[in-house]
Amino acid sequence: MSGIPPVAGSATAGFGHNPYPGGGTAADEHDRRRSTANWQRALDELEGDVLEAQSALARGRAEEIAAWGRRTEDWVPPADLGPIPTDLRERAAQLLQHQLAVAEQLVERILQSQRQRDVAARMSYAPSRPVASFVDRAL
Fold it and tell me: What is the pTM of this model?
């Protein structure tokens, strides 16, 4: 006997994580690569949305900024996305922080725009001040 116990448990049954490097099949490797590629595309799409919103803020067009605030569609991950690969977690975390910062800027600009519109509305529709009138006649 060699003194090495036989491999048993999840490693032989095909369940769970295989603790032995290089023990995966070609199909496992293909699935891992496909999952990574899917996640890269998803992160690219999200990053594009964040950069587009940031550009709208930089241009300073109130209508564009308000349109970002009115978006009602939530991002829904594709059904076949699976868990995020370890090598993309840092990128996803950085993207989330960037996304939150841009969202905060959007909210602030929308609120600022609403305050400006409220002030403008009060100025435009405020009752007019009495105008001094002078009568030009001899006494």
Answer: 0.61
